[in-house]
Amino acid sequence: MEFLKKPILTEKASALTEKSNRFTFKVEHKANKLQIKQAIEKMYGVNILAINTMVVNGKVKSRNTKGGLVTGRSPKYKKAIVTLAAGETIDYYSNI
Question: Mind telling me which Pfam families this protein's record contains (predicted)?
């Protein structure tokens, strides 16, 4: 089972990377911290100091249509913030 879905490349995530050497990934909902750590170390060959995980709830979205107001939610997902050892980095584009 592949636990890493994709890296999160937002302004807030890049500021976190520049400031404190922390990288953000969208991960499988059932993955725990040990599985995430093993997957990242295997894929990128880095040493991980700490992992923080969180479940991000989806936002409520609504739009007007001919049939009236349609409301729904974007899907929720699990996010992992990984702290690397000093001097190490992850190149997201090396495995394309």
Answer: Ribosomal_L23
